[in-house]
Design brief:
Blueprint (H helix, E strand, L loop, with lengths): L2 E8 L2 E7 L10 H12 L5 E5 L12 E3 L2 H6 L16 E4 L7 H9 L4 E3 L2 H11 L7
Parallel strand pairs: 3-5, 5-6
Antiparallel strand pairs: 1-2, 3-4
């Protein structure tokens, strides 16, 4: 639910920068969803801003939910053959991704969040609290 924007140079590789959509501007294409999923799973320390309710059932209140280290190592190389380079970074998890305001989107952008999604914070919290995998290879 994020949109691809300008492609920029990042060293020898070209990186795809994902941007949060403005209200009323939603890209539901498969390539945008794949790029968003890749961005949140390829992060060095994948984390998601907790703006939803499910993650709080598994872990104490905190601003971010962080992916377990094992999840990240499981994803090593998973996107190497993706023809769209991926930029690593944090995401914004919300239960209402189509109700964000322009001010909220800009606030999240200014914090360096790359995409808005609905599941990462809860999956990270569950995986950590229950010591259960949420990804399989």
């Amino acid at each position: 639910m994020c949109r691809r924007s300008a492609v920029r140079s990042a060293g020898r590789r070209t990186a795809l920068r994902l941007r949060l959509p403005l209200p009323g501007e939603h890209d539901l294409s498969g390539s945008a969803q794949a790029a968003a999923a890749a961005a949140l799973l390829r992060a060095n320390r994948a984390r998601a801003l907790r703006d939803e309710g499910t993650s709080y059932h598994y872990q104490p209140a905190a601003e971010f939910s962080t992916a377990p280290t094992g999840m990240l190592s499981l994803m090593a190389g998973a996107f190497d053959n993706l023809h769209v380079p991926v930029e690593r970074g944090a995401t914004w998890t919300t239960d209402a991704p189509f109700r964000e305001t322009a001010a909220a989107v800009e606030a999240m952008r200014s914090r360096g969040l790359l995409a808005v999604e609905m599941e990462a914070a809860a999956l990270y919290a569950f995986a950590t609290a229950r010591e259960k995998p949420v990804l399989y290879r």
